[in-house]
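sanity check this chain:
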Amino acid sequence: MWRVTVRSGPKVEKAKAASWEEAVDLALREARVLANRPRRGTVDLRVRTFAPEQQVAGRVELTGPGVRAGIDVRGDGEAEAWSGRIRRRVVEPEERETPYDALRRYVAQSVSVEP
């Protein structure tokens, strides 16, 4: 069973998928929706200022057998694929690859590895 969790501000939505392909398709669709939302402005907390590209405006998390990965959508609309549970690591896009393609590649490689 695969699970997709979408976080946008205080709103959290969860969905289930039967296969990793369905889960990735759902996660990517939701991440693109988050990326098309209005951009965030700079947040000034007196002590520190956070530019839109430093803020995570939305997060789509994908979990399944032995896999935890997702996409963070920044306040400026840019996306970044990541993997890991406790320590998130950026999934670097390969040549001509978008962060969405990088996530799909990472999950495909993770599920195809024999235990």
